[in-house]
Write a structure and sequence with these properties.
The chain is 32% helix and 25% strand. It is of the alpha/beta class. The relative contact order is 0.08.
């Protein structure tokens, strides 16, 4: 295959997937390939798939078929979690040329460079044989003025509803040295804010010989020169230790926001989900953290209609979510995932009931979002400017991950600015500038 072939990427799912796509994309560009918009004609289409829900599976299949229609002579490659767990099923789709699992994703660039000599249509080995974290060439996902840092892959929890361990394998941690090296490179490029991501962040360090865990990692990262903001990705409630709370309390560079992998707040449902804690722990941990940290905000993932979830169990979840208060929720209707324990449960919930529960939680989400944001009216927050549009409005996120719009700001992209919140427009905070950080 000659150089200067046009390559188009489409990435579904989590930030980890997006991080890996960015690395693969940058490597291909280095070797002379030209990045093309996915909606335009390209020579190679790469779809980095997600399989967290049946909807994600369906979307992946539709996008793969669309790619071939854009250029019938193109090579269509699917990689990611769906490719890892359902390689044979995907290969039956005539529009797909190659299936590359997560176990072989980091070698995708070499595969493409020698694609003319590839006879096998599937390259997907047993992901559970991966014992160590596999490094990707530094090409960190940049999102506006923020950079994502992947520190961990895989998960050992095997929650009864979750297919991800079959797509990602067991928990594997990246070395502290590698993480710090990447952050140091990015600070020299001018990045101020870093978001720590992984499949199960709370498990960081458990597989390493060195004495390291998430708390020790955070203490190292926030002391690196040039690091001004550190955000933490999704956390399980039981991983919010007292030590974790103390570190957040003592370090203003750690942003007062967490995305919680909540799923349910009912003891019976949590047990069936194979979560090893109950609703009391959720309430105690999140309330203690909020009491300890000024302006602490939470977002969360929630599953409704889990097998056996009664009206009372759903109300338990609804009521505790309302009591704690979240600035945003991602609500999912339960769907069976093959290979999971929950897919064998017989007490499935009717689709109409699942939809009703999702709608009720969505209404609560809007109500909570408004209440949480109204707390900041006439108060000062600090915003990292991420984009300035032609109409003079700038956009960015506060320390606690609230999106803020400011008119005629006296700052450039990637600057930290103090603003005073003046209004709430739908779910967007409106602010007036008070000045740049000294």
């Amino acid at each position: 295959m000659n150089f200067n072939k046009k390559v188009a990427f489409y990435t579904l799912g989590c930030k980890v997937n997006q991080y890996e796509s960015e690395s693969l994309k940058n490597q291909l560009v280095k070797f002379g390939y030209e990045e093309e918009n996915f909606e335009k004609e390209a020579d190679i289409y790469i779809v980095n798939s997600c399989t967290v829900t049946s909807i994600a599976d369906k979307k992946t299949r539709n996008i793969l078929r669309r790619a071939k229609k854009l250029n019938p002579n193109s090579i269509v490659i699917v990689t990611g979690c769906y490719a890892q767990t359902n390689s044979k099923e995907l290969l039956e789709i005539e529009e797909i040329d190659f299936v590359i699992g997560n176990s072989n994703k980091s070698g995708l660039v070499d595969f493409i460079r020698d694609i003319e000599n590839k006879k096998s249509k599937v390259l997907s080995e047993d992901i559970f044989q991966d014992k160590a974290y596999e490094e990707y060439e530094f090409a960190t996902l940049r999102e506006m003025s923020r950079a994502y840092i992947k520190i961990q892959d895989g998960c050992n929890n095997f929650c009864s509803y979750c297919k991800i361990p079959f797509g990602r394998g067991k928990s594997r941690s990246r070395s502290l040295e590698s993480i710090c090296n990447e952050i140091e490179i990015l600070t020299k490029e001018g990045f101020k804010e870093f978001i720590i991501i992984g499949i199960n962040l709370g498990a960081y360090g458990e597989d390493l010989k060195e004495d390291i865990d998430l708390e020790k990692l955070l203490e190292k990262v926030i002391k690196l020169n040039g690091v001004e903001r550190v955000r933490i990705g999704s956390m399980y409630p039981d991983k919010i230790s007292d030590e974790f709370i103390d570190i957040m309390k003592e370090n203003k560079r750690l942003m007062p926001h967490l995305h919680i992998s909540l799923q349910s707040c009912d003891d019976t449902v949590l047990k069936k989900m194979r979560r090893h804690y109950g609703a009391d722990l959720i309430e105690e941990r999140l309330m203690k953290l909020r009491d300890s940290i000024e302006n602490m905000e939470y977002t969360a993932d929630v599953i409704v209609g889990f097998p056996g979830e009664t009206d009372e169990m759903f109300e338990n979840t609804y009521n505790l979510i309302k009591k704690i208060g979240f600035s945003d929720l991602h609500v999912f209707q339960y769907s069976d995932r093959e290979k999971t324990l929950a897919s064998t449960f017989t007490d499935k919930i009717d689709g109409v009931i699942k939809k009703q529960r999702a709608e009720k939680l969505e209404a609560l989400r809007k109500e909570m979002s408004k209440e949480r944001k109204e707390k900041y009216l006439k108060k000062d927050l600090e915003v990292l400017v991420e984009e300035i549009k032609e109409d003079g409005y700038s956009y960015g996120y506060s320390q606690n991950y609230l999106r803020i719009k400011t008119l005629n700001i006296n700052a450039s992209v990637n600057e930290l600015v103090k603003v005073e919140i003046s209004n709430l427009e739908k779910e967007l905070l409106i602010a007036d500038e008070k000045g740049k950080r000294d």
